[in-house]
Amino acid sequence: MIRNTIWLLLGLGSAGCVPLGAQEPGYVLRQARSDFPPVTPVYLVDQLPGQPAARLDSAWVGPDSSFVLQGRVPEPGVYQLMAGWKACPSCPTWLTPYTPVPLANGDTVEVGRVERYQPHSYVPLRGTPAAAAWMEYQRLQARHQANVQRRHEQLLGPAETVSYSSGYGETVYRRPSDERLATWLIEREQLHTAWRRQLAAHLQRRRQEQPREYLGPYLALRELIIDPGQYAFLLEISQQLRRQQPEARVSRELLRRLRAVQQTVPGKQAPNFSLPDTNGRDLRLADFRGRYVLLSFWDPADPYNASQWAGLRGLHQHFASRGLRFVHVSVGEFGSSAYRAALPGHHAAMLAGQRSPVAGAYGLGTFPLPHTVLIGPDGRILARGLQGWVLGQKIAEYIPLD
Fold this sequence. Notes:
Helix content: 25-40%
Main location: other
GO biological process, one term: cytochrome complex assembly
Distance between the termini: 76 Å
Number of domains: 3
Number of helices: 11
Low-confidence stretches: 1-22, 159-176
Mean pLDDT: 78
Strand order of the largest sheet: 13-12-11-14-15
Strand content: 15-25%
Pfam families: AhpC-TSA
Keywords: Cytochrome c-type biogenesis, Disulfide bond, Redox-active center
Largest sheet: 5 strands, mixed
Protein name: TlpA family protein disulfide reductase
């Protein structure tokens, strides 16, 4: 009783614990020697990619640096193990992602320890076939990341700091460094495409060996959804899982996003919307019909988003006078005045965030922010998801720079 009261006061409940008399066993997730100091809170969190998080269970790291989480999961899936972190003793606790964990009720999963942190290192898991399959995926991903880094260093040099969205114009890509940058951006996308194809082939083999495997749809949602070349495969595996587990959330989410992204691929009509602008009036995408439009979605509070402002300013400098209209949409509340001043153009906000119908229509939960959509005068999508130099080159195909 006292222990439960303390947990509730500190915000560490036992919501995920197995109820007394439960018939079906739950999961056990434990780490014998933790990476975290004693009295660190650890949490098991249920969060599909792009969806709000819900805490399932929590525990403290003990004096011997171990912890055990026991409870029940809503369905077989991949859940997030997180840890509490404080910048100072009086600072609030921040949740820090530690590792994804594939879990089903009845599983006992041992969480290993990263003895030496290196680039592309990952937390080892063992105890179930799903954990072994996750480790295989992690090794494939680490190999891909190492290949990308190695090619980056070959083209740009390990000590060279590069801003991928630093301005745009005739003088930019005459310099040798920018020629290398352009080559790198093209090769990077080729490497990512090859990786997605490799992963799709791997998932296809696993699906044949393990027809009821639940990792495939999750990894597809995490890695493959942004690749139009994989849509037929994604539809196939999501429908197969739905036949086996009709209530599986991951298959429903995968199908929902597939429908959204298929409706907004290049060539499709851009979904119209009406959103409040900074003056309290409605900003309608249809009002820009007859002009080229660069629609961009932003998270003004994200420092990485702020690092991309320079590239959009450069594009505005070169293309606004040639007829391109810039429409910037904040995902959530309006950004600060500094944010609006840094991005010339029209500003609007999706006050409901990712739950806005506009986010659903454009499949925003699938893509990282900032996200751009280039729209033609007839309202059709010309390109989406491009940044920096590559985005400038695409715009110049339609609006030449004299």
